[in-house]
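Side project, low priority. Logging it here so it doesn't get lost.
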Amino acid sequence: MGVCHYFGRSHNAATVSKNQVQAQTIMKRFFASISEHTVLVSLTALCVYTILSCLLFAHCSSFSGRSYVGVHGDPAVFMWFISWWPYAISNHLNPFTTRVLWAPAGINLSWTICIPSLALLLWPITTLWGPVVSFTIATLAGLALGAFAAFLLCYELTDQYCPSLVGGWLFGFSSYEIAQLCGHLALDFVACLPTLVWLGVMRYKGRIGPRVFFVASSITLVFQFGTSTEVFATATFFGCIALTLIYLRQAADTERLVRVGKELAWSYVLCAIIVSPYLYYTAKEFSSIPALLQPRNVYVSDVLNYVVPTPITYVGGSWAASISKTFTGNDMENGAYLGLPLLVIIAAFAVVFWRRRWAQVLLGMGVMLVLCSFGPYLHFMGRSLLPMPWWLGEKLPLLNQALPARFSLFVALVTTIMVALWLAGLKGRRALGGYVLAGVSMLCLVPNLSRKPAYWFTELRVPAFFSDGDYKRLLKLRENVVVLPYGNLEKNVMLWQAESGMYFRMAGGYVGAYTPAAFARWPIVQMFYAGKPSQGYENSLTAFCGTHEVSAIILADDSAKEWDLPLHKIGWERKQIGDVVIYRVPQAVIHKYYGSTEPSDHDSYVAPHSVTRSGRLSCKW
C-alpha cells in the first residue's frame, strides 16, 4: 500500500466531524507531496541518528530513573518543569505562576526556561516513569530529531542521500549541541529551526500548498516558542535578516519569496494568538526583570573557539586545554568549534559557488552570525579587544537578554547547508576526496566520552529523607520550608520537590538567574547563597522565617552543615533523619511576624551592588 494512500485513508463522513475531515485533507496533501522513496530514506536517516544518539549518550540506568544525561544541577530544573506543567493543569492551577517555589509570594514563570511544549508532550511518560526518564528521553530525542530535521532540509535542497546524511550529523551532533546536551534541554532541543526552513523551502518550490504550510509552520513556531523563547526570538531576528538579504540580492524568485514571507507572517500571527497567555504573563513581569539576566561580555564565542575545541570534544586534548581554559563563560556555552577540516570545506564551497547569489547570501549570513557570536567585543584567549556588531544588538529590547555564544547554533545550520550543497556538487574522484574530508570533519566533532567525571552522565543522588518518603511523616502537606544548600548551590532540590508531587513548598528554589524581590531585600538570603551565616544571622533568620511562614529548615547536604551549629544555638527543635537534619521554627515566631512583608531596618541591609534597580538580586551566582 502506498504511503500517500495510507495516510490519506478516508473515513465514513457520518463518523467524523467537519474539522477532522479538514485536518485529514491537509495531512493527505502534505504526505502526497512526499514520495515513498523520500519517506524510506528519511526513516533510515532517523534510525541512524537515533542509534548514534543512544550509543553515544545513553546508559542502561538512564532509562530506569537512576541517572540522567547531563552534568551539574541544571537538568534538575528542567525535570521540575517537566513535572510542574502536568501537576498544575491536573490541579487546575495557573501554570504560568507558582507558589510552591519562593513561597508564599510565589514567582512568575514566564521569564524562566519553563518548556511547556516539552512538558506537555512528555506528560504520559512522566506519569508512567517520572521526570528523570522523561528528561533523558527528551534529551536523546533532541539530538536525533535535530539531526533528522537538518537531513530533511539538506535532502530537499540537494535530493541526494549521502550529502544530506553528513549535513544532519554536522548539525545534530555539532559542538553546540553536545555542549548544550550537558544540561540545557531547552537549548538542545532545536529540531524546529531546520524544520521551519525545510517547510519554507518546500513551500517556495511549490511542493506543499499554502494551507499545509500555514498549519505546519504555525505548529512548529508554537512548539519552538514553548521550548525556548530565546531561540525563537533570535531565530526570528536572524531569519528576517536572511530573507531580506535573499530579496535584496535577488538570490531567489522575489515574487515567490514574498508570497512565502507573507504566509509565514500569518503563521506568526496565529502563533501569537495561541501563546497569548504566555505573552500576557511575560509582559506583566517585564518591569520586574533585571536589565540583564546574565552578565554581558562573558557568554560569548572566543575567536579561537572556532578552531580550538574545548574538553567536551574528543580532539580537545591537553594541546587545546591550555587555550580553551582562557575562554570566558564555561564549557556548556563554548560550543562554537567547527575545526580546520570543516573550515576547509567552507572555503572550497566559497571558491566553487562564489558567483551564485544564493551562495553569497549563505556566506554573508555565516560571516555575520560568526561576528555576532563574538558578542559586543571580540575576544582572543579571553581578552576583550575590538567592538563587534552585537554591540548594537545589545541595544535591542528583549534580544539583549540573548547570549551571543548561543548564536553558534545558527552558524552550525548555515555550515550544514553549505557542506551538503558542496558535497552534492562533487563528481568522480573529487567526490571521494570530498567525503573523506567530510568524514574527518565529523570525527573532529566526536564528543569526549572518556572524560572523568563524564559530561553526559550523572548518577541520581536523592537523600533517603526524600526517596523513602520520610518527608510525609515529618512535614505537613503544603508546608513551607527552607532547604539548604540554597538555590543554585543545590539545584537537585528542585527534583526532590518534583518527585514528591510538590508535597511541600519552598521559600526558595532555582528557576533562573535572579531572585524575586520579596526575597532579594533580605540579608539572610545572601547568607543562604554564601553557604554560611554571618554576623546578625539570628535576627534576620527569625524575621525571615516568620514573615515567609517558614515552619522548618532542612539541611539536606553535608555542605549545609555550616548551618547546623548556628541553628542549634538559636534553640530551635532539632531532628536528624539519616543524613538530613530538620530544625523546627517555633509557631511563636510565625505568629509574631505574620502579615509582615518587609524586613525591619536592622534586618534589611543589603549591599548596594547586589540588588538590581528592579529590586531583584543580581545574577552573580
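Brief comment: Residues 151 and 165 are 6 Å apart (CA to CA).
Revisit when time allows.
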